[in-house]
Amino acid sequence: MRILHRRAAAALLCLAATSTFVSCGSSDEGSGGTTLDYWLWDDKQLPAYQECADAFHKANPDITVKITQTAWAQYWQNLTTQLTSGDAPDVWTNQSSYYPQFATSNQLLDLQPLIERDKVDLSAYQDGLADVWAKDGKRYGLPKDWDTMALVYNTTMLEKQGLKKAELDKLTWNPSDGGTLERAIARSTLDTKGRNGLDPDFDRKHIKVYGFLPEWADGSQGQNGWGDLAAANGFRYLDKNPWGTHYKYDDPKLAETIAWFKHLIDMGYAPRFDKQSTVANSELLSAGKGAIMVTGSWTISTFTDPKVKEKLAFAPLPVGPAGRKSAINGLADSVWAGTKHQEQSWKWVKYLGSADCQNRVAAHAVVFPALKSATRKALAAHEAKGHDVGVFTDVTAAKETFPLPVTEHGTEINPLVQDAVQSVVLGQATPQKALKDANDKVNALFK
């Protein structure tokens, strides 16, 4: 049995407290004021939130916000370690697949009483964002931003193959023949002799430019590709969302979708998983090594950066048998249940979700803030820079989005499903068997 240090044991006792106002935690008390530790992972958003922190301190001279930015993978590892040691940040940026484990172990402060006390209008946020963060009458986060998915493509490459914007804006897809999406991918795949994937002499073993760059390190949700197309094929992750308890990864509609992605590899239109470059897909696309990929709205600045030599543009996801479907995901700011400064932490979270901060974030044109009014300002900021990114907001207006699953055991489910999907694209298992086996393991977690 693992032996806990006294400090960790005390922290666990603190985390077990269910009262709205408990006094424990680790934020340092500065002379004549309070210092709050705030964590986030996105370096591109850091300048916007530092601006918010500065404005917040100006309005509240007795509160200083210290921001720590850490890359995604290390972020969650560090957070778990800090929570175990009883020295977690007062406030952190939270994500829907991670927060259930924190909520069920009483590590997050219930914000609902504070929201009601201060009359925070949750209806001002993008529809559905606030609902994800509530369970059994408690609320564990205040919405900060949201994202949807679209295609990003190399306009020069596709134009050389005769593919125009109007055609790319109306792509279709199905798992049988791939629809016009597969045809566009084939046309934009080039072998080392310059022949595209529709040429009878196309050499699938010697590729210069891949028509499609898939994402396989995508957990159990497939947000960056297979999940969106699976939903467009009629697949639903689980019995209800949020807080469902029975997953449906054994659905034939998902197996058909994963099989189609494997087909792209077999045809030479997408790189083999075991031979895939260690360079990020976004960098490969920006370097002209790929033609099309699925991306999220949080990456817009990556592709619109003036330093990118290739000319890139965005297009809607294709329409599938069940329509066009884009995952929508929203981040939130949460307060650690063990903070010594609950009122100050709540004041900071409330400010992060306010128009003043979210309008500042919008002006940086990196993400779409959660407030509907701030989203419009972000879209205007993109347009002012000459960036056509309306495809990311059009899907919400057309109600073509679906929420990513929010359940317990999220971090355990991720590797089970990801390993199954990867085994299929490696040719080690059939989609039906791999996904059924994974689904059985996933649902066993809830028994």
Automatic annotation (TrEMBL):
<protein>
    <submittedName>
        <fullName>Sugar ABC transporter substrate-binding protein</fullName>
    </submittedName>
</protein>
<dbReference type="GO" id="GO:0030313">
    <property type="term" value="C:cell envelope"/>
</dbReference>
<dbReference type="InterPro" id="IPR050490">
    <property type="entry name" value="Bact_solute-bd_prot1"/>
</dbReference>
<dbReference type="InterPro" id="IPR006059">
    <property type="entry name" value="SBP"/>
</dbReference>
<keyword id="KW-0732">Signal</keyword>
<feature type="signal peptide">
    <location>
        <begin position="1"/>
        <end position="24"/>
    </location>
</feature>
<keyword id="KW-0813">Transport</keyword>
<comment type="similarity">
    <text>Belongs to the bacterial solute-binding protein 1 family.</text>
</comment>
<dbReference type="Pfam" id="PF13416">
    <property type="entry name" value="SBP_bac_8"/>
</dbReference>
